Amino acid sequence: MTKDQAQADTTDLARQTQALFALNGVSGPQFEQFFKARDQMLRDVESFARHWLERRQEATRSAAEALSQMNSADRSDPAAALKAVTDWQRGSWERMREDLQEWTALCMRCADAMATTQVEASSSDADPGDTAKAGSRATSETAQDDAGRANSRSSSRSRSAAQASPG
């Protein structure tokens, strides 16, 4: 291999590598939309984590308070201890419900952000008005799906309650 051939091979390799990393007109908007969605998802995750930690701190405080109530109550009164434990459990169930509710909302927002990103990125070559319409359609369809699932859950809960109630 001659020196000129080695230099030509190196130059060709450099061009091929540049081509791999160069943003063309099509991928630029896709990356931009991806990073916008990623930024929004990270803000949403940060908010979820902050609220989750606040609930864990409340759980620690309420457990300590329940123990304090159980220890300070008349030891011959098991009803007072049972009330303290019941109150603590009620708060724990409420915190778990909030965790699940917020987690579900987070997942929905992330899925919506990615779906909107896909729609906007795929239609970046189209008319900008079409992009807004497509994003609006995707969001509207997601909202309709959510409402349908919520109505279905509500109906099944109503049926379960009606079956469980003594006639």
Task: Tell me about this structure.
- With 167 residues, the chain is an all-alpha fold.
- The protein has a domain at 29-56 and 63-120.
- The protein is built from four helices and no strands.
- The chain has helices spanning 3-21, 27-72, 78-122, 128-164.
Biggest beta sheet summary? none
Residue-averaged pLDDT, rounded? 76
Strand runs, count: 0
Low-confidence stretches: none
- Rg, nearest Å: 28 Å
SSE order in H/E notation?
A: HHHH
The rough form would be described as elongated
**Helix/strand structural class:** mainly alpha
Please give the alpha-carbon distance between the first and last residues. 94 Å
Count of helical regions: 4
Which range does the strand content fall in? under 5%
Helix content: over 70%
Task: Please describe the topology of this protein.
Blueprint: H1 3-21, H2 27-72, H3 78-122, H4 128-164
Helix pairs in contact: 2-3, 3-4
List key phrases describing it.
mainly alpha, 88% helix, elongated
Overview in brief:
By secondary structure, the protein is mainly α. The protein is built from four helices and no strands.
